[in-house]
Amino acid sequence: MDSAGYGLLVSTDSSISTTATVVVLATICGLLIGSFLNVVIVRVPAGRSVVRPRSACACGEPIRERDNIPVLSWLWLRGRARCCGAPISVRYPLVEAGTAVAFGAVAGWTGPSWRLPALLYLAAISVALTMIDLELKRLPDTIVLPSYPIAAVLLVIAAVAEGEPGRLVRSAIGAVALFAFYFTLRFVYPGGMGFGDVKLAGVLGLYLGWFGWQQTVVGAFLAFLIGGVIGLALMALGRAGRKSQIPFGPFMIVGAWLGLAVAAPLTSWYLTATGIS
């Protein structure tokens, strides 16, 4: 092997090693964040502080540190509280493990990059908002509204650091466009769209627009496609009727993530299949 080939091999191995390290760190971070998100999911809708008091069992006994290790504590305790034997919802380890998987997947997708913090933040609020909306059919302002400045700052840092400030213009247009689109739907048919969905649309538009026009269009379209398919399936199974209220936030979130991940190859496939290009 010549020196150039050896150098390329070393560089490739180093890149893979760095990405693997970032994935592992992001996964561990996801476990810890997932534990915090469990507190957010319970306390934010109730208007309680997520900082104090410390986490406690349903019987009022504070949870010990050794019983508060993400996922592992639930397994060790076999899903029951040490203090009183009350069952601990399986939602807790699922949120922790799900957040860890989401963080690891995002890190593996982007690798070590300036856009990673912005996407990890989106992953965190995606988990919290999905769980709250599914359970309570609400998208709390306490989570959604602060996401505008937080996401904006993280995306500005990423765009400037990556030398692509033009992304910020698309990001702003995407936020305004999706907010206006959902606001119009809400105005035309108030019963079919909550205002929480309208406010969430602006946050998702920031991200979709930052990545590109294809991502914005595909992400918005997939939200309605997935929502429609799931809605029809629930009606066919007798789990919902035409007037049933089905939380739309999770569909918006899934659609946005799919838009970010598959918009480019999906658009390319569609254009090729239809003979447009």
Order of helices and strands: HHHHHHHHH
If you compute it from the alpha carbons, what radius of gyration comes out, rounded to the nearest whole angstrom?
A: 21 Å
Instruction: Characterize the main sheet.
Output: none
Q: What structural class is derived from the secondary structure elements?
A: mainly alpha
Q: What is the rounded distance between the termini? A: 41 Å
Q: How many individual helices? A: 9
Q: Runs with pLDDT <50, length 5+?
A: 5-10
Task: Write up this protein.
The protein is mostly helical and 277 residues long. The protein contains 9 helices and no strands. The chain has helices spanning 3-43, 72-76, 91-110, 116-136, 141-161, 166-188, 195-211, 213-236, 249-273. The longest helix is centred in the N-terminal third of the chain and has 41 residues, at 3-43. It is globular and about 65 Å long. It starts with a helix and ends with a helix. 33% of the residues are buried.
Question: Main attributes?
Answer:
9 helices; mainly alpha; 277 residues; single chain; globular
Summarize this structure briefly.
The chain has 277 residues and is an all-alpha fold. The protein contains nine helices and no strands.
Secondary structure elements and their pairing?
Layout: H1 3-43, H2 72-76, H3 91-110, H4 116-136, H5 141-161, H6 166-188, H7 195-211, H8 213-236, H9 249-273
Helix pairs in contact: 1-3, 1-4, 3-4, 4-5, 5-7, 6-7, 7-8, 7-9, 8-9
